[in-house]
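Reopening closed ticket. The problem is back. First fold of the pair:
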Amino acid sequence: MRILFWGTPDFAVPPLRALLGEGHDVVGVVTQPDKPRGRSRTQLDPSPVKLVALEEGIPVLQPLKPRGDEFLQQMRELAPDISVVVAYGHILPETVIDLPPHGTLNIHASLLPALRGAAPIQASLLQGMPETGVTIMQMVPALDAGAMLHVLRTPIGPDTTYGELHDQLAEMGALAIVQALTLLEAGASRAVPQDDACSTYAPKIERHMARLDFAQPAEIVSRVSRAFDPRPGSFAARQGVDVKCFGARVLGDGSDGALDEPTRSSPPGTVRSADDNGLLVRCGVGAVCFTDVQPSGKPRMTAAAWARGRGVQPGDQFETGSTLTAT
């Protein structure tokens, strides 16, 4: 089949390369316009998907919005049999979705109907889910609500970070779309409607979601840290300055004796140590140990390096929920 591929960030690159590697006829790529960068904003950065398309000699379309007569005509000229969408960045109108004879397939990074929306990978970590995966679905105008064609699952480990899960799911998406198209071409594909009553939503990431609140249990603090590691980085304020924290590991649940008495008696947000073992901070329940930090305006470094630079010392206090102010 002739495939029109839609995608923009690095998450969409493995599926595109997989389709090409399997010999599928990718007749065009639709991606976001190049982004300006630098102080002058005159330099333009192409998307990761565009770079692959140029490398492979595939025609590239970059509309500001994927709609209108001119854009529909460009699609018709490419004559796709089917569209494949992954992390493109715009909601597609029904006229665009239905233009290819076989419609439009979407690669979504969750086990639908759970976590429809913009940030399912982060949401799966924030919610402490034991597993996630990718779903290949038929695209419809309603957000991530189309019938499911193929699902792959994977467990989420206790120390899994967003970066690790992002890369794993990107590769799973590549495998899943190749398998889904094989089933479709063989006439063996079966569309399973989603149960809308079981749907949940994964909203777009906002800055406040990455704020660490050490008044919360260590497990919750760890989830927030891992959900934004390596980017944009979870953060907490110390002496009015934000510090990003990475590599979270939970110590103690308040009942297992894993914490010494000085730590157990410290108020939430207290730094108990900062050395080669990491940055240990008391939480509302238990404690959490971070391997790396990134003080404002500085590069990421180990907790020990931060301590040697006198950036932190035992007894220092991070702000907690009772002291946080709106930003």
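Second fold of the pair, where the issue appears:
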Amino acid sequence: MTGAAGQVGVDLVDTLRGLTVPGADAHYWADGRRVGDGEFDVVGVTRHEVDFTNVAALEHAVVATRPDVVVNLAAYTAVDRAESDRATCFAVNDAAVGALSRAAAATGAHLITISTDYVFDGQKGEAYLEDDETGPLNVYGSSKLAGEARCASADTIVRTSWVMGVRGQNVLRAIARRAAAGEDVRFVNDQRGTVTAAADLARALVALVRSRPGGIWHVANEGAATWFDVAVFAGRELGRGDEFARPIATEDLVPTPAATRPARADLSTQRFREAGFVAPAPWRDAVSRLLAGRDASW
């Protein structure tokens, strides 16, 4: 597994080892099967151990370890910085995925790699399905779409969005800190997407590690929301009431974001459900669990 130190990575490593991670729904398993004792032998690598801009090093790492499944969670996710750092962004999100796909094919491993809702332009007007037309609006989204194109047909691509975990820096943690400090927040009300709890994504990934389906899959918590919706709900959960969060338009943000975001890029999990998997719970349930699972570092 790459990206083992990220907020999804730490949750997936522990989940594959049979642990219940902070913020998880102990009863949720996408395929109805909890992890058995010793079911998985997990090898996790981080950017400190492998240079993800070095395709030769990545291929060597896969060939040397010869895993059954490679889960690629490593990513360049600094959306605004990517606008001025295109080369590094594409090296990690595009070229590295190609290297992992080639190495997986050469060793008989199955690749599962994570992509994003930002491959879409947000103009559809309803939740996106896997085979909808893509059209990224920024460098980050373009790099992830390019990485998808590098994958072989046998590889599994998981698109997700707005990921937040108890163990990681994310928007929900920032909201909770502001609430605890007695401060108010302003969040955009004109970008609609899909919240994804890292713990829920990890448990869904377990099912895909087992089944190795290939193709593109959307995995996120159910229901669309704006960041303002998330802030309002979190404020209520934290005892701050309805006045905690105020709506703002993206164009009124200061400083102005360098990257353009899609106005509506929520992901439909219809295909995931029709394949017999259980989709993660509605986003409000996920946010409640994440807030309940927070520790002193928040």
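Update: turned out to be a display glitch only; the data is intact. Residues 86-107 form the longest helix (22 residues). The two ends are 27 Å apart (CA to CA). Please close again.
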